[in-house]
Amino acid sequence: MRISGISRKRLYYALALILPALVLRLFTSLYPVVYTIYLAFFKVNPIIGVHTYAGLANFQKMASDLVVRESVFFTVFFTFLSIAFQTSLGLLVALLLNKRFILRYFARTINLIPWAIPMIVVALGFRWMFDSEYGIITDVIARITGFRFAWLIHPWGARWAIVLANVWKNTPFVAILFLAGLQSIPLELYEAARVDGASSWHCFRYITIPFLAPVVMTTVLFFTVWYLATFDIVYGMTGGGPGFSTAIMSYKIYQETFSHMNFGYASALSILLFFLVGILGIVFLLLSRRVEILL
Amino acid sequence: MKRGLWWFFVVFACVVGVSLSGMAFAEEIRVAIQSFAHEALKPFIEQFETQTGIKVVLESMPSSGTDALTKLTTYYRAGQSPYDVVSDADEASPAFARAGWLEPLNDVLPPDFFDDFPPSMLESEKVWNWLDDKVYRVRHSFEFGYFFYRKDWFDEMGLLPPATWEEMVDIGKKFTAQGKIGVEDALSKPALLYVYVAYLTIQAGGNPFAFDEGFKTAVKFIHDMIYEYQVFPKEALNKNYDQINEDYMNDRVAMMRQWPYFYSVTRNNTEWYREGKAEIALPPRGPVSNASWAGGWGWEIPKFAKNKEGAKKFIQFILSKEIAPKLARANSWFMNPRYSVMAELGDEGLAKYMKWYSDNNVPAPRPYHPRVAEAQNIVDDVVSAYLIGQMTLEEAVEQGKKMMAELGE
User: Fold this and answer.
1) What residue numbers bound the domain in which A32 lies?
2) Does A97 touch chain B (CB under 8 A)?
3) A264 with A144, same domain?
C-alpha cells in the first residue's frame, strides 16, 4: 500500500514524538537484560578487580550452591502457597463484599487497608507480632492452646509466618479484583437459574466460577510472576533465616550483587529466576486453558 | 502540524533547561552520616562554614554496615556519588578501596596525625583502612562490645561478675531458675549473629573465617548455652538489637554483650534506669582470652565526589586534634581511644570504661577478610543452620570452609 506524501509526514511526525519514550524504554529494559545475560558468562567482582570470561562456571556454581537450592525450594513454596490461600480467601471476601448489607461500601474501603501498607512495614510489624515473647499472634495462640510457639526460629514456622503475612497483605487486593469480576456477571443469569430451580451451589458452580475464571486466571498469573521475585518481606522478617530456611531467590541475588559484588554470579542467578518465572508462567497458561475448557 | 512540532520542541527545551539548572550549585559539600549524629555535628559544621565559606549539607546514612554497602555500591558502580564525604562502615570501606572507588587521604592528614593513635587502634587502621600505604578512611568511632550486667541483681544474690565462660554459665543458671534470661545477645541474620560468633571465637583463640578449632569451640559453646545449659534463649536466633534491648530494659536479662550506644540508651531511659541496672564488667574469659573485637565507622571521600577539595578540607577539620575530642564529648558516636580524645573525656561516662578495657588489653583486632561482607554472610549462614539443627557442627564447618575457599582471590 502506497503511503501518500501527507500520510508519510504524519507517520514521521508520530515516530519523532514517540522516539524519546521508545529509546528510554529500550534503554531501561532491553539494555539491562542484554547486559545481564552478558555478565552471566563472566566472573566480575570490582573488589578483587576481576572481569574475566568464565563460560558456564557461574551456572555450574549455582548447581552446587546449597543456598541456591534452598532458595529455589522456598521461592516455589512461598509462591504456590501464597497464591492458593489468597485466591481462596480473596474469593470468599469478594463474595461477602458483593452481598447487600449496611455499610458495605465502608467494608469495601477498609478491606483495602492491609494492601495499602508498604510491604517492608508489614514485614517489620509481623516480625514483632510473631515474636515468641512480645508477639500478639504468639500470645493469642498460647492463651487458646497453652502452647507458645517460636515461629521465626523454627524453619517451617518461619516459612509459614512469611506466607501468612504475605497473604494478609495481598488478599484484599485480590478480593477487589474478584469483586469487580463478580459485579460484571449479569444478574439475569442468576434469576433465570433460580427460576429453573438451581440451588446456591449450582449458581456458584455453573455461573459464578465460569464467568470469574478469566479474572482468577489473570490474577493468579500476575501474582505468580510477582511472588517469584519477592524480596522485601523476607528481608524484613527473617533475613533469609533461620539457617537457610527462608532464603529466597531475589534475596540471594540482592546479596550477591550489593553485599558480595559478584555481579557475574548474580546475573547468572537472575537468569535462573527468569527461566523459573518463564517456565511456571507457561505451565500455568497451558493449565488455565484446560481449566477454561473444562468449565 | 508545524505549530505542533514547534510546541513540542519548546516544551522539550524547557524540560531540559529545568533539569540542567538543578545541576548548578554553589560551593558546598554533602556529608553523609547517621542521622543520630547530626545534632552533635551541627555546631562544628557552623564553625567549618564560617572558617572556609563552604556550605555543608548533612545527609543520612544507614546504621548497618551491609545497608551502607548496598546503598553506596549502586552509586559507585555507576561512577557517581551523591555525597562528598561519607561516614562508612568496616564492611563497605575496604571493598570500595580495593575497587578503586575511594580517594586517598594521605595529602589531607598532617604528617604526625597518626601519632595521636594508640598502637591497637593504629594497627586496626592499617589493616582495614590502608591499602598499599594509602589511607582511604579514618575512623571517627572505634568501639568494642561491652559486657553489661544487672549489678543490682548480682548484689542481691551476693554474686560477682563472671570471670570465665564457665562462671557465666553457672551464674546464668541461677537466673534462669528465677524465670529470667541468664545471658543474651542478638543472633539474627544478617550480621548480628556474626558479631557474637566472632566475639566468642576470638576469646577461644580462633578466627571465624578459618573455621578453626577456636571457631568450633565458640559455636559449640553458643549451642550448649541454648540447648544444654539453657541460659541463653533460643528466641534470640531471630532477635535484633532493638529486641534484646527491650528484653534487658524489661528486666528480663542478667548479662548481655552490647555495643557502647547501649550505655546511652539505658541512661536516657530515665523512667527505668537506676544505678546498678546496666553496669559494665570485663568480659568473661574464654579458653584463651577475654578479648572484645573492635571496629567502627570512619570518614572517607568517594572518588566520584563532586567537590573533592571541599571534602578534603572538611576531613582535615573534623579529624583535627582540636575538633575530634570536642566532637567525642558531644556524641559517643565519635568516641575513640585517640590520645587527644581520651585526654578531653577524662574519666567521664563511657570513656572510663573504654580506658579500663584498654588497660586490661580487652580490645582485639576485628577479624579481617578482603571480602569481609561475603565472608561474614558465610559465617552467619552456616552457624545459623547449625544452631537450628539444619546441620551438624562438622557439616557447618565443612560447608563454611568450602564456601570460604570459593571466595579465594
Assistant:
1) 5-53
2) no
3) yes
User: A145 — contact with chain B (CB < 8 Å)?
Assistant: no
And the C-alpha cell for A248?
A: 529466597
ipTM metric: 0.76
Tell me how many residue pairs between chain A and chain B have CB atoms under 8 A apart: 111
Q: How far apart are the first and last CA of chain B?
A: 62
SS3 B280: strand
State pLDDT tens for residues B265-319: 899 899 999 999 999 999 999 999 999 999 999 999 999 999 999 999 999 999 9
Contacts of A10 in chain B (CB under 8 A): 1
Q: Is the dihedral of CA B340, B344, B347, B353 positive or negative?
A: negative
B234 vs A9: CB contact, 8 Å cut-off? Answer: no
| Residue-averaged pLDDT of chain B | 91
Residues in A closer than 8 angstroms to B101, CB to CB, are: 46
Residue B16 has pLDDT above 80, yes or no: no
Predicted TM-score (pTM) of the model is 0.82
% pLDDT > 90, chain B: 70
Of B74, B98, B235, the CB nearest to A133: B235
Whether residue A48 lies within 8 A of chain B, CB to CB, comes out as: yes
Bridge partners (DSSP) listed for residue B60 = B33
- Nearest Cα of chain B lies from the Cα of A10 at a distance, in angstroms, of 8
Write the pLDDT tens digit of every residue in B337-347: 899 999 998 88
C-alpha span between A47 and A45 (Å, rounded): 6
A153 contacts B388? CB cut-off 8 A: yes
Nearest to B374 among A17, A150, A259 (CB): A259
In chain A, how many domains are there? 2
* Beta carbons within 10 angstroms of residue A26's beta carbon: 10
* Count of helices and strands (H, E) across chain B: 17, 14
Fold category of B24-142+296-365 in CATH = D-Maltodextrin-Binding Protein; domain 2 (3.40.190)
